[in-house]
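User: I'm putting together a teaching handout on how multi-component assemblies are represented. Below are the sequence lines for each component of a complex, exactly as they appear in our records. Could you produce the 3D structure of the whole assembly as structure tokens, so the students can see both representations side by side? Please keep the chain order the same as the input.
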Amino acid sequence: MNPVKLASLTTGQHGGGGLLVLCVLVPVAALLAIVLAGGRHGRAVTLAALPPGLLVAGLIATQVWKTGQAMVERVGGWAPPLGLMLRADGLSVLMLATTAILVAAVAFYAPRSFRVAAGGAETRASLVFWVMLMAIWASMNLVFVSSDLFNLYVALELIAFAAIPMVYLEGKKGTLLAGLRYLLYALMGSVLYLLGAALLYGRHGTMDITLLSGMAGMDWAVCLGVGLMTAGLMAKTALFPLHLWLPPAHAGATPAASALLSALVVKGSFFLVLRIWFDLLPPLTGTPGAQLVGALGAAAVLVGGVMAIRQDRLKLLIAYSTVAQIGYLFLIFPLAKGPAVATALSGGMFLAISHAFAKASMFMTAGLIAGAYGHDRIAGLRGVMRSMPVAGCAFLIAAFSLIGVPPTGGFAAKWRLISAAVESSQWGWAAVILCGGLLAGAYMFRAVSVFLTEAETPVADKPAGTRFREWLVLALACVSLWIGLFPEIPARLIEIGRPANGEVLP
Amino acid sequence: MNTTEWFGIAAALLIGLGLYGILTQPMLLRKIVSFNVLGSGVFLMFGVIARRGAAAGLTGDPVPHAFVITGIVVAFSASALAVTMALKLHEDTGESAFPEGEDATAPDNPDEDKA
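Assistant: Of course. Below is the structure of the complete assembly, with chains in the same order as your input.
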């Protein structure tokens, strides 16, 4: 039992904790309203829910930022171990804000085929898309503010049930199979997670992360439980070698859905791994178990990069790039050792949010390009830069962020990861990060070099509404640039509400 | 060995069987059934934990029961979704298993975003 750490995890701001309930309730209310009103009003209800949702996320962020403390809410006044506690620290705030902005962007980007024309027949996709968009928003927010392992299990299942229908929304050939494979991986992952949580409950009689972090020692039941939970979450996050479901699912979905799945959904389960390894059992980072997780991450960086180079289709290339970027996220567990804990965590969070914006922008750009060209075979995408300069710029900025070119957010993240490798004297991981950057440069160059060549035949007219969406994707790409230009803001947020804050910093 | 420990061993066996089934069976329906076997093992494990954690005068800790009930609802919905998708797949393509030697094959036609 570490009283200092326990105190720093439980103390927090109690006023305004109702906002944490609201950040889940707003999208749920919108979801129910869409089901009642029908798909033809889906877009209107979603757009109406965006301002309150963004407002709640903004209020939580400003309050946490101003007070420098985590927000805490005991739902219904019941305290753990029986009651559920919601808690938003700096990490939660960053993810809540990222999610709110990306959901808003996806809602404005969503193609007209999901908007029902006045008097037209309602399509299944129009209902399902808006309902699932709100469901993903609600369940992601629930993951970010929950601090109870069982509540988190339910939130994870909700994410999976909301994300999987997005894969085969349009019923295109092959997408149903991709969705089924995704479902089976997700189910196996969540059962393993539940088994791990059961072992922790059996050992300590509570599911509350804060209480568990005060009690849990490194005995075999706890280690097995954490190992099972981590393995389950790896399947859901698509860490190599459990990544096989990701490329067909993410590449086959409609662009708005791909952006959401690749940028956000995989981060939900990753965030939970962070919570378990950094909050529940901090001595685990830097152990042989962490080295194994890191080795899988390194393999993901290299395999994902090589596979991305070999793809002929733009969306598959972007999907394999996600496999590689997920690998970086798992490098932080071996890196968070000794004096490098804070640097590694900060690098992981920077990568999570800058990848979220860059990848969302890139998938949506790929959707615009495919819409104008009628296909997404890389070899046939000549002249994109001339015919769609704004979208081309967005792709370029997002590519720079994924490669890690300064001054993008991707660079800020990799800089922190490499610093952590230096601080903890583990040079091998730094070499993996640099190799991954070279591979990313190679696969992005493949796409961009084709975009820059002159087209033999002029491109047909762009579909209506493309111009607005081109600026939208450029704005998203610029957010990932902004993260790199002003890293102080996320860097300060990440430290708010951390246990033993300041003690582990050099 | 007392009864609780036998149930613990049964739970471990069910979990092992279910995991083996999910990983090795190519047929979709068998994978779904395996998932349910695996889930049953985990729920039984919760029962064992409830029995072991029983306080004085009680036959079991009631909290794991609440977990199991929620877990059963989730597993039921998941199975329903999986079976529906498998049926739809069979209806569309006649397939009832994952194709051999597939992996990372994406849907054929690229995305036309009909704006």
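A couple of points students might notice: The first helix of chain B runs from residue 3 to 24. The two ends of chain B are 68 Å apart (CA to CA).
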